[in-house]
């Protein structure tokens, strides 16, 4: 447990593991790495990753400078050792190292500097979006996490976070405060995935229908041009 920018103690329950959550709450880099790993794996697995990585590096925290300078092959081994830190340990090891190298180059290795001096929500979103491995959606979710649970709330932060910044929502990791909210977020994600799958199927059906209609029209037009064929002009 640590103290947020608003002066309140931070107690996270994202990883559903006391030690892993404690690290996330006191280590800005651990929180960033957890967000980076939150892709194609259960949220608890992703956010436990920083704690497991720190343990394998023989430390109680993550250090951007040390990770940035780590031998790439040896660092990958830290991810691939069983149990693996991610479903795609090799590529994620590379992304984490790239993130830390960027932090060293741009922020002197201080992860919290990414948001500490951000004047507005849009400024913070731009900074997060510039991080290796952070697309717009991931940047918005992390911005919402900073605002909702870390007390990092520059002017316009909710608007910059988009729907993830909405109060009372259960859309992302930013809204997880325990087992119940985790279940709600997971249910929302499953519903969104099902809706996206249904929309994609509908789009494919519409495309096939359009293609068949076009093919029939072309066939009819060709038939009309043949000698003896029926034509609207006849």
Question: What would you say this structure looks like, in words?
Answer:
By secondary structure, the chain is mostly helical. 62% of the residues lie in helices and 2% in strands. The chain contains eleven helices and two strands; from the N terminus they run ββααααααααααα. A two-stranded antiparallel sheet has the order 1-2. Helix 1 (18-26) crosses helix 2 (28-37), helix 1 packs across helix 3 and helix 2 (28-37) crosses helix 3 (43-56). The longest helix has 47 residues, at 179-225. It is elongated.
Distance between the ends: 86 Å
Report strand %: under 5%
Class per helix and strand makeup: mainly alpha
Mean pLDDT: 90
* Unreliable residue runs: none
Categorize the overall geometry. Answer: elongated
Radius of gyration: 24 Å
Helices and strands, in order, run as: EEHHHHHHHHHHH
**Largest sheet descriptor:** 2 strands, antiparallel
Number of DSSP strands? 2
- The percentage helix is 55-70%
Number of helices: 11
Q: Order of strands across the widest beta sheet?
A: 1-2
